[in-house]
Amino acid sequence: MKPPKLLENLTTEFKREYVEDIKKTVTAFANTNGGTLYIGINDDGTIAGVPNPDDTLLKTGNTVRDAIRPDITLFVDYSTETIKEKTVIKVTVQKGTARPYYLKGKGIRPEGVYVRQGASSVPAAETAILNMIKETNGDRYETIRSLNQHLTFDAAGNEFTRRKIPFELRQQKTLKLISADGIYTNLGLLLSDQCTHTIKLAVFEGMEKETFQDRREFSGSILKQLNEVFDFIDMNNHTRAEVQGLYRVDNRDYPEEALRETLLNALVHRDYTFSGSILISIFDDRIEFVSIGGLVRGISLEDIMLGVSIARNEHLANVFYRLKLIEVYGTGMPKIMRSYADFPRKPKIEVTSNAFKITLPNRNTAAAVHTFSFADGLTENERAVIALFESRPEITRKDVESALSISQAMAVRVIKKLTDKGLIRAIGGGKNTRYKQAPVP
After folding, report:
1. In angstroms, rounded to a whole number, what is the distance separating the alpha carbons of residues 3 and 58?
2. I want to staple 11 with a disulfide (CB 3.0 to 4.6 A). Which of 35, 57, 85, 180 is the partner?
3. C-beta separation of 196 from 217 below 8 A
4. How far apart are CA 381 and CA 361, in angstroms?
5. CB 35 within 8 A of CB 93
6. Distance (Å, rounded) from C-alpha 260 to C-alpha 327?
7. Three-class SS of the chain
């Protein structure tokens, strides 16, 4: 019986002879539904044969082993067949379990990832690549393979060295920066010098987002960002001197522990599947930290305040734990609240579906409010306005509205009462009116 003529299709391809491009075909089969590659058959299905089958088998196996990542050898079988008295090479490829497979020199991007389209092997679209990654690795960001496989770890290496912790290949695999297949994960990307996520920080004049005093964007390894951002905030964490009896006591605007824990919380628990930056805003009376990603499913704000913690990025949290940046999971929020135990204004936490915001009040402003007693004949709002002068020489009506969270009409009434009492005085007029604290007689 005459055998049917062979034809190229979605799962079959012919090569007249060995060429290096067979790696694209094998990659495409493994990324799609598997297939068979014949070497020694012309495009029209006629048999050409292979003059040196053993040499061709060796070159083909070496190419597949050396040029394709992750390792695909378990999904490829090589054999020879005799068709019309001529020897051809048959390369059978199964659909792989670690897709997307890609060409070693090109990386996990369209020019390195191929799929079958009809009888051709074509570059995969970025969306197709991302879908393959999710199907293989799931939706957990930090364990998914990084699209960038050309990573360096100078900053991370320095941090580990400074803390006298090994950071060789074995440790990187243990920490999950590198998968069992030797592929960098997104956790590796976060710790690498090529990290694409940033922190944006701004210092504002007054208590509203109107006038910038300074603004920065921090990039690179998140360990580098952590150190640089904390140092920058520390420079803006002013000290207020207060005399208590015979002694002078220096109080900083913000407890260092609260700043540290809040910054670590923003980095460890943010949702890195979004590209937006962590936002930090420093005002005269407060500092705000906004990170992408709401609460982990199943956890409430009340749970967090009690110290319950489920890490969105478990392996990243483990890295921070190894570096002794964090202690036992769930201790951060109670530490933040304890650092404000003796102050009237407490940290404020706000949560939406996709964002988490922590506001730390300026303790020196809070302390100033606390030092006024009801015997002064001032209302709580009036004391809060007077306290604003601890951090600036002048204020506006809008400053009062923002700091006290009151209406424009109420702010006008509070300011008028303080003016009538001779405690503040107006400068200028109309929209440009500002207020100074009146000198003590």
Report:
1. 29
2. 35
3. no
4. 16
5. yes
6. 12
7. CCCCCCCCECCEEEECCCCCCHHHHHHHHHHCCCEEEEECECCCCCECCCCCHHHHHHHHHHHHHHHEECCCHHHEEEEEEEECCEEEEEEEECCCCCCCCEECCCCCCCCCCEEEECCEEEECCHHHHHHHHHHHHCCCHHHCECCCCCCCCHHHHHHHHHCCCCCCHHHHHHCCCECCCCCEEHHHHHHCCCCCCCEEEEEEECCCCCEEEEEEEECCCHHHHHHHHHHHHHHCCCEEEEEECCEEEEEECCCHHHHHHHHHHHHHHCCCCCCCCEEEEECCCEEEEEEECCCCCCCCHHHHHCCCCCCCCHHHHHHHHHCCCCCCCCCHHHHHHHCCCCCCCCCEEEECCCEEEEEEECHHHHHHHHHCCHHHCCCHHHHHHHHHHHCCCEECHHHHHHHHCCCHHHHHHHHHHHHHCCCEEEECCHHHCEEEECCCC
Dist. CA 169–CA 149, nearest whole Å: 15
pLDDT tens digits, 13-71: 999 999 999 999 999 999 999 999 999 999 989 999 999 999 999 999 999 999 998 88
Distance CA 266, CA 333 (A): 12
Residues contacting 190, CB < 8 A, separation 6+: 142, 197, 221, 222, 272, 316
At residue 300, does pLDDT exceed 90? no
Amino acid sitting at position 125: A
Give the alpha-carbon dihedral of 125, 127, 128, 131, to 10 degrees.
160
> Tokens in use for 316?
């990243």
User: Region 186-195: what's the mean pLDDT?
Assistant: 97
pLDDT in tens, 72-118: 998 999 999 999 899 999 999 999 888 899 998 888 889 999 999 99
CA–CA dist 171, 181 (Å, integer): 15
Closest to 359 in 3D by CA, of 374, 341, 340, 376: 340
Q: What residues contact residue 248 under an 8 Å CB cut-off, 6+ apart?
A: 241, 242
- Measure the CA–CA gap between 133 and 273, rounded to whole angstroms: 13
Maximum CA extent, the chain: 118
Residues 6+ apart with CB under 8 A from 313: 141, 142, 187, 268, 269, 270, 272
Residue 135: the pLDDT is 76
pLDDT at residue 281 in the model: 96
Residue 62 dihedral angles phi and psi, to the nearest 5°: -65, -40
